[in-house]
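Ticket #4471: structure output looks truncated?

Reporter: J.K.
Steps to reproduce: submitted the chain below (101 residues) through the standard prediction queue, then opened the result file.
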Amino acid sequence: MSFVVPDACTLPTAEQPPRLAEFDRLFTTALREVTRSDATHARLRLAGPAAPVRDLAARETACCSFFTFTVTTGPGDDVFLDVEVPELHAGVLTALIGAVR
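Returned output as attached by the reporter:
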């Protein structure tokens, strides 16, 4: 995944490529659908299980506090990852969604 990490991220530089690789693996193996409701919100439908998605979302929120991740489960093995950002970081969400499509 090619992605410019915003200055607001506090994850040490050396840890950023492995983290991006985690997102890339998740999206490559589990992504089923992306729905963008507006500039600051997207919903990703993933194949389960939910625990690894929750773990990755929690770790990302710890270093990039502008992200709000909400993980819910649906029918079957569906896992929904809602990603919200403030308007100031709408470009980060656009880049994230662009990288997974």
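Triage note (M.O.): checked the attachment and the full token line is present. The chain has a mean pLDDT of 88.
Status: closed, working as intended.
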